[in-house]
Design goal:
The complex is a heterodimer of chains A (about 600) and B (about 230).
Chain A (H helix, E strand, L loop, with lengths): L1 H12 L2 H38 L2 E4 L5 E2 L1 H9 L4 E15 L5 E9 L1 H8 L30 H17 L4 H20 L9 H19 L6 H36 L1 E3 L6 E3 L1 E4 L26 E6 L12 E11 L4 H4 L2 E5 H7 L5 E4 L15 E5 L2 E2 L1 E6 L5 H18 L9 H4 L1 E3 L6 H40 L1 H9 L4 H32 L1 H12 L6 H4 L10 H27 L3 H5 L3
Parallel strand pairs in A: 4-10, 7-9
Antiparallel strand pairs in A: 1-14, 1-15, 2-13, 3-4, 3-8, 3-14, 5-6, 7-10, 8-9, 11-12
Helix pairs in contact in A: 1-15, 2-13, 2-15, 2-18, 3-11, 5-6, 5-8, 6-7, 7-8, 13-18, 15-18
Chain B lengths: L3 E12 L2 E13 L4 E6 L5 H8 L12 E4 L2 E2 L5 H11 E4 L11 H11 L3 H21 L15 H13 L5 E5 L7 H18 L2 E5 L3 H5 L3 E6 L2 E4 L2
Parallel strand pairs in B: 3-8, 3-9, 6-7, 7-8
Antiparallel strand pairs in B: 1-2, 1-4, 4-5, 9-10
Helix pairs in contact in B: 3-4, 3-5, 5-6
Classes of the chains: A alpha+beta (about 600), B alpha/beta (about 230).
Chain lengths: ~600, ~230
């Protein structure tokens, strides 16, 4: 009881314990912020990656899975499976028109079925959007379909402000304002169409002419600020014109992406086309402060790029390199760099054909030796079309692990019915796996997990300084309170009671510091994006570079379970720090303590 | 039967390689309700003897050395029993008061009472303990000072708080180490009056270490300690 009273009084009257609580608070907040952000990053990464490959995969690279439609039927009949789709994955080469060549993963899909498993359509990049991405305050994203209004209004304001600061006569400014407002109104109200001579385009051209005319009337060295603003305004007008032409393309690009086709401008035919990962063309550029850069990047929907791949025989022998020149239907972005920088989605039948996985006739192997035999070689059978992967989406209420188990059973039955279906030792481990165990991906995810664990371990070690700080402060306090310890022993306090007094004090500091640290961490994490934005704008410090982390926003959720672990750790570290001084106090000789000066 | 006895007490302090013998075979018997003063020069071992009697320190190991309270040898008590002995049977008063500066007057006086019981019992008995401590402080003329910190009190007031703390658990033995040594004569006399009154009322046994001849004159018996042994005062 006297310990409670003294702990309360020490906390209220001493500065040093408050410093210790402050140290605990900072360490707790630091660890919790790091864990929340890194953990959130990992969760975002995993959910994004999962979106492109489903929950469970059956994979037999090179050899492929024949009769896959039958297998898909069997799989989709199972209640644990919501959808399944066939895909082919193969290494290929992309030749860009810049002369650059990239090694890529070619993924052949049937887009509708692929979407049913992976939400592929939601990952298409070039689609009309109505809301800008976070931090795109200037609405510079060319996909925005209403990006004229916020650009035109400030333009007029800037123009007038620059004219005023340049000291132009007021009647000139008035006339400038009237004409600019008139034309700007025309730009705002004009409908967007794909017709280059549309009302909107006319208004834009008028605006550009107006700016050019005003530029010539005031082209004087005395007005550099005005000239600069007018040049800026001219650039703006050019951009409005360009956007006006580009926006209608977005709806078409979305349709193209969903069908993996592109319309031939000459014939109007739908041609097979590819959808590339956004990082492949380096479109997704942002400036150091994280704002979207206004550029198409390398991607150009009117260009064709060459894909090359090498079909292999069942024994992994190179057959004959295959090349295709394909237009780009769209781009996709999962948020996972490994996928976005390395995948190209193409029509399934196209890749089947390139890799010789399509249905083929089997001819008589002895026919060549029968020289002089007229006509084509006799067909002795048909080799069914194959795919290398089956992607599976779990039904609601089923885990990936449950679906993996069901899939193994279904495949085993399927293979029993089809002797040509591949089945090799250890197939359950190597050929049927959950999404996060996908070869290549699993090492990346493991690396991120390890990185998170490493950072946390380092910060936890750093947090040990809080324990040492508590220890040092308590050691000093015990020295300062030596006489009090003697008094307490003289009036009957036990050794355990004295030890508990200081341990309890450490506990109080740990609880106070940890709770305050938890609150501080919550406030920081919840507001981490505005804080980061402020740091970028005011100080030029950008820690979370979207070009590195692939997410425009820093994860800002605090997991209550993680918070509980960290706060408990803070309390334990404090008690640990108080342990040695508490033992020292307990074993202090009461007579020596009473005589202490 | 004496309440407190000490036989053949030796105490030697060791400072590096030097041994400093302070007590060289002290013997004494203190009867119940007796007031005994112990006189001696500085460094003669008076305080050391008081610490041994309070169970705060142990005499040099010797088969013949023995301190008993109510016929129970302190050396046979385990640590917990010795803590309880100091808490319940003995009250200690020091020359420099030794109050805890973070606590107010009432809390300082209640401190030993807060150590004696477990939390639930204590919560139940808290009003009673508070009343007992407040009564004692009222008796010492400190009822208007209950919420004051020790640094807001005079030396005499502090010593009266220390005495109230020593008596709050109603001990049978009061050990006082120069209780008036730091006070002026008038204040010292007032403290002494209070102690004598308590002794009369509660049959309190008192052992007081002092330099003060006036205090010695009011004791039942005066012992002198010199050369590490007790000599009857002339």
């Amino acid at each position: 009881m006297y310990q409670s009273l003294l702990t309360f009084r020490y906390l209220r009257t001493k500065v040093m314990p408050l410093l210790a609580a402050l140290a605990v608070m900072l360490c707790t907040a630091m660890v919790l912020v790091v864990w929340s952000v890194m953990g959130g990053f990992l969760v975002s990464l995993l959910s994004m990656g999962r979106a492109m490959i489903g929950d469970v995969s059956i994979a037999f690279p090179v050899v492929g899975i024949p009769h896959y439609e039958q297998l898909l039927e069997d799989l989709e009949a199972d209640p644990s499976i919501a959808a399944a789709c066939p895909t082919i994955e193969s290494i290929g080469m992309l030749a860009l028109d810049t002369g650059e060549q990239r090694v890529v993963t070619l993924v052949g899909v049937d887009p509708e079925r692929y979407h049913a498993v992976t939400d592929f359509f939601d990952r298409l990049w070039w689609t009309p959007i109505t809301e800008p991405l976070p931090r795109d305050d200037l609405r510079a994203d060319p996909r925005l379909d209403n990006n004229r209004e916020p650009l035109v209004a400030p333009f007029v304001d800037r123009l007038i402000a620059a004219a005023q600061s340049a000291g132009l006569p007021s009647e000139t400014i008035g006339a400038l304002r009237d004409r600019a407002e008139l034309r700007a109104q025309a730009v705002r109200s004009a409908p967007i169409t794909s017709d280059a001579r549309s009302e909107s385009a006319e208004a834009l051209l008028d605006l550009r002419d107006l700016i050019a005319a005003d530029l010539s009337t005031v082209s004087d060295d005395r007005y550099p600020a005005l000239l600069s603003t007018l040049e800026e305004a001219a650039a703006l007008a050019r951009r409005l014109i360009r956007d006006n032409a580009r926006l209608p393309r977005l709806a078409q690009l979305e349709r193209d992406g969903r069908t993996l086709t592109s319309t031939d401008p000459a014939t109007g035919d739908a041609l097979p086309a590819m959808v590339m990962g956004l990082e492949l063309t380096r479109y997704y550029q942002r400036d150091p402060a994280g704002f979207v850069l206004d550029t198409w990047g390398v991607f150009n929907p009117d260009e064709r790029y060459t894909l090359a791949t090498v079909p292999l025989s069942r024994r992994a022998v190179v057959v004959q390199p295959e090349y295709r020149s394909l237009p780009v239907a769209n781009e996709f972005r999962t948020g996972m760099y490994e996928v976005d920088s390395g995948w190209i989605i193409v029509p399934l039948n196209l890749l089947q054909s390139m890799l010789k996985l399509d249905e083929t006739r089997r001819v008589d192997p002895d026919w060549r030796s029968q020289l002089g035999t007229p006509g084509p070689p006799p067909t002795i059978g048909v080799t069914p079309a194959r795919v290398t992967h089956i992607l599976i989406r779990a039904a609601d209420g089923y885990t990936a692990a449950q679906v993996e188990e069901r899939t193994e059973d279904i495949y085993e039955r399927f293979a029993a019915q089809h002797p040509d279906a591949p089945m090799q030792p250890g197939w359950r481990d190597f050929n049927v796996y959950q999404w996060e165990n996908k070869p290549g991906l699993s090492t990346f995810i493991a690396a991120v997990k390890k990185e998170t664990a490493l950072v946390l371990t380092l910060f936890a070690f750093i947090s040990l300084t809080a324990a040492f700080l508590v220890c040092a402060i308590f050691w000093a306090m015990v020295s300062e309170k030596t006489m009090d310890i003697g008094i307490l022993r003289a009036v009957g306090a036990s050794r355990a009671g004295i030890a508990w007094l200081y341990l309890r004090f450490g506990l109080a500091i740990g609880i106070t510091g940890s709770l305050l640290g938890g609150i501080l961490a919550y406030l920081i994490v919840r507001n981490i994006n505005p804080i980061h934005e402020w740091m970028g704008n005011a100080l030029g410090i950008v820690i979370w570079d979207p070009a590195v982390y692939y997410f425009t926003d820093i994860p800002n959720d605090v997991d209550p379970i993680k918070a509980a672990y960290v706060l408990t750790g803070g309390v334990l570290f404090s008690v640990l720090g108080a342990l040695l001084p508490a033992l020292r106090a307990a074993y202090m000789h009461p007579v020596h303590a009473l005589r202490f000066e | 039967m004496p309440l407190l006895t000490a036989h053949n007490l030796h105490k030697t302090y060791r400072l590096k390689r030097t041994s400093v013998p302070v007590l060289r075979g002290v013997d004494l018997d203190i009867q119940p309700a007796e007031c005994v003063t112990i006189l001696g020069k500085s460094g003669s071992g008076k305080s050391t003897l008081l610490h041994l009697l309070a169970g705060l320190d142990a005499p040099d190991k010797s088969p013949k050395a023995r301190i008993t309270f109510d016929d129970k040898p302190l050396s046979s008590m385990r640590t917990g029993a010795l803590d309880r002995y100091r808490n319940r049977s003995v009250g200690m008063v020091f020359q420099f008061y030794h109050l805890l500066p973070e606590l107010n007057v009432l809390e300082n006086a209640m401190l030993p009472a807060m150590m004696g019981a477990n939390r639930l019992t204590l919560i139940r008995r808290l009003p009673e303990l508070r009343e007992r401590a407040a009564d004692l402080l009222d008796r010492f003329g400190l009822s208007h000072r209950l919420r004051h910190r020790s640094n807001e009190l005079s030396g005499g007031e502090r010593q009266r708080v220390a005495i109230a703390r020593a008596l709050v658990n109603q001990p049978r033995l009061l050990l006082a180490d120069e209780p008036t040594g730091n006070l002026d004569a008038a204040t010292g006399n007032a403290i002494l009056d209070t102690l004598m009154e308590l002794r009369r009322e509660q049959q309190l046994t008192m052992v007081i270490v002092t330099h003060d001849a006036a205090m010695s004159a009011r004791a039942d018996r005066t012992l002198r300690i010199a050369d590490g042994v007790i000599q009857r005062a002339p």
